[in-house]
């Protein structure tokens, strides 16, 4: 596995990101569902002959769009990157989330960030993925935009463990209840 390259701005990514298969999300905790997205991203990158990559955000988008709902985070950006590297991700953009990013319509986010700065040849996201201003972009929009640009889009069903959808929110809830063993099961690690 090659050394992880971390980019901390869109401008850095524009000048150094290699063509990619990219997965997108906050990836807080890098739980079992996130790791499934990363495994599929690595596989797609191999098929396409590009770098397996991830796009994550810091600060958490809620900080800008819904400050009253900012979650307590399970992991720092650097911890996320280390966990992603362990799954085979080779480059990560930790995109600063600010008001200007929050205002981008889905089409502009796709064009400027994914197809543009990240040179995406493939995109892997969960079925609940939303993007663009007010989360107005859906997986159907992503499929359409990717198809028009000749980019492979892979939509992955949400992972369940014992009938429970694996999510950072659910892990936070379990931890708040003191249920460490169940949260570990959803994380897929201690």
Explain the overall architecture.
There is one protein chain. The chain has 190 residues and is of the alpha/beta class. The protein has nine helices and eight strands. Helix 7 links the parallel strand 5 (120-126) and strand 6. The longest helix has 17 residues, at 32-48. The chain is globular and about 45 Å long. The two termini are 24 Å apart.
Entry summary:
The chain has 190 residues and is of the alpha/beta class. It contains 9 helices and 8 strands. α6 (106-117) packs across α7 and α8 (168-176) runs antiparallel to α9 (180-187).
Show the helix and strand layout.
Layout: E1 5-7, H1 10-16, E2 20-24, H2 32-48, E3 51-58, H3 62-65, H4 77-86, E4 91-96, H5 99-102, H6 106-117, E5 120-126, H7 139-149, E6 152-156, E7 160-161, E8 164-165, H8 168-176, H9 180-187
Parallel strand pairs: 1-4, 2-3, 2-5, 3-4, 5-6
Antiparallel strand pairs: 7-8
Order of helices and strands: EHEHEHHEHHEHEEEHH
Give the biggest beta sheet. Answer: 6 strands, parallel
Mean pLDDT: 95
The number of helical segments is 9
Name the beta content range. 15-25%
Low-confidence stretches: none
Termini, distance in Å? Answer: 24 Å
Number of strands: 8
Keywords:
six-stranded parallel β-sheet; two-stranded antiparallel sheet; 20% strand
